[in-house]
Amino acid sequence: MYSSNIGWCPAENDQSPPMLVQGVLNFTLFIKNFIEFPAFNVKHKNMVDELKECVFHPTYDKDCPIFRTDYIIEQAEKDSEERNLMLRYGGVIRVKIEWDCNLDRKIKLCKPKYSFARLDVPFRDRPFSIGFNFRHASNWKYAGTNFRTLTKAYGFRFIITVSGKAGKFDFITLTLNTGSLVGIFGLATFLCDIILLHISKQARLYRNHVFEIVHVGTRLNSLQRSSKDLIQDDNEYSNSRSNGTVMNTRKSPGKTVITRPLTVMNSEQLQFSETDRL
């Protein structure tokens, strides 16, 4: 049961435009960042040892970690009309800090890089919820009566993200990378040979230069060829016997050798020739 002095809160009046905060562009944001690389036992920060009064400038003062709000908004949103709406209805901006350290040099020479981006949906896209706002309540008591004031505030929400990497020379890593590189070159040669021998239009010409083609007959063919040669030699020998003259002809690969003819005489012709000589 509710008492008589407790009721529902009145509805919000969304028709009344929010008031623009005067001087918000002159606000400054101080970002302190500390990093550590446990593998190398190195710790570092984005501030110099003797920090003086300064404001970050991308050219003249890169080491200063203090940023003006107008610089952050201009880097996150280039459209001037969108920036004016962000000043009225708020917005969400990401601040990214990137570290890339070469530990072969002094750690003080490692400086972060800052980048800014807008995360909320632009107003020109007509989103369901525009900008960024939040509500907070304040309670007090006056003359025995409890009062509560609900305030809807518009503003900027900064989300800071940090990423980093560090490296140092290592002889073992260099050796492994060199071996991998040699293996890659060997694989490249194999792939090039496959392409040139089977896919290229001049594959036959390349194959003739790379490979030496040798025609090797089977043992059966060589036996058949030798038997044919023997039969041919027997036929020639029989023909020469029938004519009274024996021709001994032998053929060898690449040359032909022919011997002088041999005349066969009977015994009577031999005796007659001998008496004639006497």
Would you mind describing this structure in some detail?
The chain is of the alpha+beta class and 278 residues long. It folds into 3 domains: 24-169, atp-gated p2x4 ion channel domain (atp-gated p2x4 ion channel fold, Sandwich), CATH 2.60.490.10; 172-210; 215-252. 32% of the residues lie in helices and 27% in strands. It has 6 helices and 13 strands. A 3-stranded mixed beta sheet has the order 6-5-9. A two-stranded antiparallel ribbon has the order 1-4. The N and C termini lie far apart (173 Å).
Q: Per CATH, what is the topology of the largest domain?
A: atp-gated p2x4 ion channel fold
Distance between termini? 173 Å
Count the E strands.
13
Lateral strand order in the biggest sheet: 6-5-9
Secondary-structure element series: EEEEHHEEEEEHHHEEEEH
Q: State the low-pLDDT regions, or none.
A: 1-5, 244-252, 272-278
The CATH architecture designation of the largest domain is Sandwich
CATH class category of the largest domain = Mainly Beta
**Multimeric status of the protein:** single chain
State the helix count: 6
Rg measurement, Å: 52 Å
- Proportion of residues in extended strands: 25-35%
Q: Summarize model confidence as the mean pLDDT.
A: 77
Q: What spatial form do the alpha-carbon principal axes imply?
A: elongated
Q: Going by CATH, what is the homologous superfamily of the largest domain?
A: atp-gated p2x4 ion channel domain
> Helix fraction?
25-40%
Count of spatially separate domains: 3
Task: Find the structural class using helix and strand composition.
Answer: alpha+beta
Question: Main beta sheet, described?
Answer: 3 strands, mixed
